[in-house]
Amino acid sequence: MPTHRLKEYYSRPYVRAILIMFIIIMAITCAMGWVVVGFMNMSGGPASEIMEALEQTVLVFTIASAPLIAITLSVIFYSLTGWKHSSGEEPPMQDSPAIRTNPVAVISWITATSLLAGFLVVWGLIELATITSSSYGSVSANQQPNSKKAIDINVTGQQWVWTFEYPGQEGITSPKLVVPIDTPLYFNVTSVDVIHNFWVVELGIKIDANPGAITNTGVTPNKLGTFNIRCAELCGMHHAYMETEIQVVTQEEFDSWVRDKGGKRTA
Amino acid sequence: MTAVVFEQPAVLQPKQHGKPGGFLRHTSIFTGLAGGIVLATITYMIGSKLVPWGTQNADFSQVGLNALIAATMFAWVIGFMAGIGAFAGPIRWALGHDLTHDDAEYMAGKDQGKFRYWKYTTDHKVVGTQYFVMVLVLLGLGGFLAMLIRTELGWTWSELFDPNFYNSIIGTHGIVMVVAMIIVVTGPLGNFIMPLMVGARDMAFPRLNALSFWLLFAAVPPLVATLFMGGIRDGWSVYQPLATQAGMGMVGYQVLIIVFAFSTGVASVNLITTAVTMRARGMNWSRVPIFVIGIIASSVMGLVWFPMYQWSQILAMSDLVVNSSFFNPVAGGSVWLYENLFWLLAHPEVYVIVVPATAGILELMTVFLRKPLFSYKLAIAGFAGVVGISAIVWVHHMYMTGFAPQVGYPFMLSTELISIPFGFLVLVALGTMWRGKVWTRLPMMCVYAVIWNKVIGGITGVYLSDVPVDQYMHGSMFVVAHFHFMLMGAGLFGAMAAISYWFPKMCGRMLNERIGSIGFWTAFAGFQITFFSMFVAGLQGQPRRVLQFDNMFNVSNWISTIGAYIIGIGMLIFLYAIITSWRGKTYAPANPWGAKTLEWQTETPVPLENFPVLPVVTSDPYGYGVPDPYDAIEKELARDDNAAKVPQ
Q1: Is residue B613 part of a domain?
Q2: How far apart, in whole angstroms, are the C-alpha atoms of residue B446 and residue B467?
Q3: What's the pLDDT band for B142 if we cut at 50, 70, 90?
Q4: The model scores a pTM over 0.90
Q5: Using only C-alpha atoms, what is the Rg of chain A?
Q6: Is the ipTM of this complex over 0.90?
Q7: Are B174 and B35 in the same domain?
Q8: Which among B159, B400, B559 is the top mutation candidate for probing chain A, defined by the most A β-carbons within 10 Å of its own β-carbon?
Q9: Mean pLDDT, chain B, integer
Q10: Is B202 within 8 Å of chain A by CB?
Q11: Mean pLDDT of B374-381
């Protein structure tokens, strides 16, 4: 499109107003990304690389979809405030311009939304592949643990408690999860009655606990502290109270906790 | 609109057996209720002799009781349908007694006054009105239960309700609202307005039309009865094997779904056939109003996917009643099979709800903006794309079930692709709005609210479509807020826009706009408060369907509860506007909005066979607008460009 036509277009009052609104709304929308992440971190996270990665995804997705949100909202706001109104009981005498279609608008919209969706898909697929490898990385294809010796933990949900068993530590069991920092954890999750959902909130992992099946997930905590484990699948009367905590401690504290429980770490 | 009179050749009438209407002269909702109660009581008496209370099987579970309740509930449905005369048609057919014209007119409610609303009436306008009242009742019930949920969640530090009762409130709220939202546009407007819009005298299958409504009516009492029988304690998705613990309450849910699926199937076939085959002369596919396209799209999805849901409940009922083990992992069943069958409908169901409301909005925007619909073909492509892709996205509800971790990849792809056809519809809305002079009446103002809600629902949906982010957000209050933005914010508020637009035609009165607007905007404000703070609760990590929660969620839940009460007040005001306007004396002219679609071209109230003379369509219904003033400038610039191109 020649520049003098763009200039003519830009000289129309509504185009300028919508552009300004577009920029403002886009800035607000991008800022909302950080607000969302801020709320996600209110309980003390992120406590693992997975959680950091998915918070990054939230930010990226917010920024990527901001232009489309901004154009939609600025048009409806301008329609409410800028273009003329008519009120009254009778239908307005004066019709609006008969714009049946606009090939430029249609083609650029389809291109833009397709590019956006394509970007989200590609980002999501790469992200998922990365997270999957870091979730399950504690037992990689050649059975060689990533960095340290991974800890296997058998998670059992039942109405309405969680039980954690450490088969590598002589099978000690505990109603709360105590794990050493920077060590890959590998969870075998199952249930004895109905479907539960094992959600380690600040570590960003979640998997259903199904009766009659074992599901797997894994994570490497990288922050000391006490975090929440909640059941995220309605599991009956006391579903709301089916929560416990995960304590991420140093290796020494973990070893002494294991000894107190009567187990020892089998090298 | 040109009217041409066609000569109608005389048709040979079949023999009239007895008075017009036959058996149906004696039936009404009251004989239906009597039939249902009698047959249910007989079934219960006989059944309780065969399997007395407390009968146990080898596993000590009370299978006999569930079987008894299921048989009683089905007996109620069959007795009711027999009592209201639903089987009169097939029996006449079997006896070879064809309907005469007088029979058909009697069944359409001719000369029966208001009593026709209480009968098995085939007139599409009567059925549409019956659906309308039914929807209001269901939304009232679901809304009341929502208030109870928010009351419990606002009442922190103690349990207001028994946990089992609270769980059954959640489940009942969910399923009542899902049923109400599925029918809220296609029921009243699809039945009442759509045949008028395509210029037909009635639906393609008038008796099936009555059947679909009364099946729905018969399915509701079993659902309400569950509240007194242990309830649906498992959310509306009733995942197995938790559902088997709920016992009797589950039976009511299953009966509801099995019967409602028949009702939906019958209604979908009827709507599709009417729109495809009964359009007025000259209304070719490029002249069909976009609302009709939306109704077809929604019906196609309902027709194809509802059987999945129905079968999931038939198998679940078999587990409960005869101890089969389709979904019982202890005996070799699969909980993942249930989840797949369920979500095969339950995701397309979201589009079944949102698509007709969206189509209604697009339809009414053209009227209030006095502009043609922007890029009609793009809108059709959008609906077609949504219908097509909706078939292959259901697993995004199951990312975290672990049934196949690799399945996340293809379903993330399809889920994010469905945003492209939905984006088409957004462009159609924005393009129609572009440079339009708005006539600021209530239906149009609702459109702004709906687009805002769709934007919020859309961006939060972007997060949830992503598998890694779902590791945090799945099963949290964030999801609840997201789907309320789509189903309520886009679906229900869109339906309110459509209902206030077509209210003058349906009810023959103008909707009181002052009171209606106050109600709508109060509800809208409350809606934003409720669900934005629910987003916050979800992001902080509050799981859904809980009764109590950690102290860190207190503030967001209190705000959410206050917002919910505001929604409740707003909705009651809107309901008041509907009821008082309907009973009022502000009669509506035939075409109060100056619209060009066919339903406004006939008189109000609409006569028995809709049009004295069937209309003939000569153009598409969007012939609004004046030549664009900028076109002159464009032409001038184009001329300059061409002049510049001429070699010197």
Answers
A1: no
A2: 34
A3: very high
A4: yes
A5: 27
A6: yes
A7: no
A8: B400
A9: 89
A10: no
A11: 94
